[in-house]
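Subject: for your reference before the review

Hello V.,

The reviewers asked for a structural picture of the protein, and I figured it would be easier to keep everything in one thread rather than splitting it across files. Below is the amino acid sequence we used in the manuscript, unchanged from the supplementary table.
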Amino acid sequence: MFPGTVLHSTRLVLRAFDTSDIPDTHASCSDSLAQRWHPLPQPAGNRRYEP
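And here is what came back from the structure prediction:
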């Protein structure tokens, strides 16, 4: 929505999602505790989801 907008605070940086975020996102979505609280596809693979 606002790709050039980055919000900063002392503890947080909010920016647009980038392809470099894919490995960390995959790891967090594959975590059993995250899956307990968030309904995620099983298994959370590296495939692309199309709407």
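For the response letter, the relevant points are probably these. Residues 22 and 51 are 18 Å apart (CA to CA). The chain has two helices and two strands.

Happy to draft the paragraph if you're swamped.

O.
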